[in-house]
Amino acid sequence: NVVKTNQEFTWHFTIRSFDQLKEAQLIWDNTYFGDNAKHLWLVEETTGIITDMRLINSLDIGRANGKKFKLLYGSREYVEKASLPPKTIVNVYPNPLKETTGLLVIVLPFTTNAKIDLLSLTGKEVYVIAGGYLKEGRHTFTLADKTKNLPAGIYLVRLQTDAGAFNKKILVEK
């Protein structure tokens, strides 16, 4: 449906499905967005994944029942700020990781000192991914070079911030 918008707009919606085992896809016609400088982003609220709807016209969303999204329209500053979650998100894609794949995405609703490391299940530090001052917003780190020499198994990505620690379990496959 066409949604009448102001200069900036946020629209929240949840995907509902009668068949919870079927894969779902969102499809849109991005020729209606006009010739303007506005940004149009689709944000999956649980993971923080952003899709620029001007660049592509569909998104595979897997088993989508209950997934929450927000659609953001406006200036770059508006959509960046509106896409931030109320809490910290730490995600790894894909999970399980293969030797040549892996992205760590961290979304911070605040600016903080941080350390990001990879731990064994016993808590031993295996690799420091990053450390220092991180501004609010999205931060993406490549994991393939850090996990390619690790044995297959379960590991933890730990984000330590001024507000506390956040962990994400990952599986490394060979």
Portion of residues in beta strands equals: over 45%
Residue ranges: pLDDT <50 for 5 or more in a row? none
Outline the biggest β-sheet.
Answer: 4 strands, antiparallel
Class inferred from helices and paired strands: mainly beta
Strand tally is: 13
Work out the helicity level: under 10%
Structure overview:
- There is one protein chain.
- The chain has two helices and 13 strands, in the order ββββββαβββββαββ.
- The radius of gyration is 18 Å and the shape is globular.
- The model has no long low-confidence stretch (mean pLDDT 86).
- It is 6% helix and 49% strand.
- The longest helix has 7 residues, at 76-82.
- It has helices at 76-82, 144-147, and strands at residues 9-14, 24-27, 39-44, 50-52, 58-62, 68-74, 89-93, 103-108, 112-120, 125-134, 137-142, 153-161, 164-172.
- By secondary structure, the chain is mainly beta.
- A four-stranded antiparallel β-sheet has the order 1-6-3-4, with helices on one face. A four-stranded antiparallel β-sheet has the order 10-9-12-13, with no helix packed on it.
- The relative contact order is 0.17.
Give the secondary structure arrangement, pairings included.
Blueprint: E1 9-14, E2 24-27, E3 39-44, E4 50-52, E5 58-62, E6 68-74, H1 76-82, E7 89-93, E8 103-108, E9 112-120, E10 125-134, E11 137-142, H2 144-147, E12 153-161, E13 164-172
Antiparallel strand pairs: 1-6, 2-5, 3-4, 3-6, 7-8, 8-11, 9-10, 9-12, 12-13
In short:
The protein has 174 residues and is mainly beta. It has helices at 76-82, 144-147; strands at residues 9-14, 24-27, 39-44, 50-52, 58-62, 68-74, 89-93, 103-108, 112-120, 125-134, 137-142, 153-161, 164-172.
